[in-house]
Write a structure and sequence with these properties.
Layout lengths: L1 E2 L2 H10 L3 E5 L3 H13 L4 E6 L8 H14 L4 E8 L2 H10 L3 E4 L6 H17 L3 E6 L21 H11 L3 E4 L16 H11 L3 E3 L7 H10 L1 E6 L1 H16 L5 H23 L4
Parallel strand pairs: 1-4, 2-3, 2-9, 3-4, 4-5, 5-6, 6-7, 7-8, 8-9
Helix pairs in contact: 2-3, 2-10, 6-7, 7-8, 9-10
């Protein structure tokens, strides 16, 4: 069933577990995520991000994700992640996405508050949830790489003010996490996670989940993280599945797809189990 994040994250908060968000830039990824969630009887969050739109345009993503979510036997939230522009966020809203992340984290604090507050007002009228970001989660490589990420960590005092003034349903935090492949083991600031969670009372979001150690996930969830974003691990699993198919002599795309889906389903199953407290 197609839902927003509100009740999903409220249940996760009450019972102390995390929910995976998986970017799905094609139907095979979407199948891997939703079919696995159904097999595990688990809620799941699925979608795309503005930076991924060159791979698959937003209209096309909506065309397959929203009907698939609606038919699912478990709660599925279709989330537009890292929306960088107002117009693209409005497009996702019009297409039927049930959750929007408006990422204004690179702007001044007051501009971040102003823009996200406006987005919350618009989205809540349509029963769509909103995620904001405070501090800034950079990249492990490329133009978004931050050499001293601790300079942009989320400030707990500011987080309290931000949540109060914007009314966001979830807050993405910068606590030592980053997007993409980690070159060295990250050191998450778990005390900061716990403090922000306790003081704001909103579900926290951990971006850059691919590559973190299992123990990091477990502790982050214990300290208040309720949504964990995964893409790189899923993307790489699909590639490995395709390579296995080719090495086994599969020569047609239709045959390769089955290998890709199976490999990605293994990653989704592992993450869902881990975020819900599995070992």
């Amino acid at each position: 069933m197609l839902v927003n994040m509100r009740e999903m994250l409220k249940s996760a908060e009450k019972e102390g577990y995390g929910i995976g968000f998986f970017n799905a830039v094609n139907v095979e990824m979407a199948r891997a995520v939703i079919e696995t969630a159904e097999e595990m009887n688990s809620p799941v969050i699925i979608g795309t991000a503005e930076i991924l739109l060159p791979m698959m345009e937003l209209q096309n993503v909506a065309d397959y994700l929203i009907p698939m979510a609606g038919r699912a036997s478990v709660p599925v939230c279709v989330h537009y992640d890292h929306g960088l522009t107002y117009d693209r966020c409005m497009e996702a809203l019009a297409l039927g996405f049930t959750s929007i992340m408006y990422d204004c984290s690179t702007l001044s604090y007051e501009e971040n508050v102003r823009r996200v507050s406006e987005m919350v007002s618009i989205c809540h009228e349509k029963d769509v949830t909103v995620e904001g970001e405070l501090g800034h989660v950079g990249d492990n490589e490329g133009p978004g790489r931050i050499l001293k990420p601790e300079d942009l960590f989320t400030d707990p005092d500011q987080a309290v003010d931000y949540v109060s003034r914007t009314g966001v349903d979830a807050l993405a935090v910068a606590v030592g996490n980053a997007h993409g492949d980690y070159k060295f083991p990250p050191k998450l600031d778990f005390d900061r996670i716990r403090t922000i969670s306790e003081r704001t009372g909103v579900p926290l979001v951990l971006h850059g989940g691919s590559g973190l150690a299992d123990d990091d996930f477990r502790r982050a969830v214990r300290e208040g993280v309720r949504k964990i974003n995964i893409f790189t691990d899923l993307d790489k699993a699909g590639k490995k599945g395709a390579e296995e198919a080719i090495s086994n002599g599969v020569s047609a795309l239709s045959g390769i797809m089955a290998y890709e889906i199976d490999a990605m389903k293994a990653v989704v199953k592992e993450k869902i189990s881990l975020f819900r407290g599995g070992y």
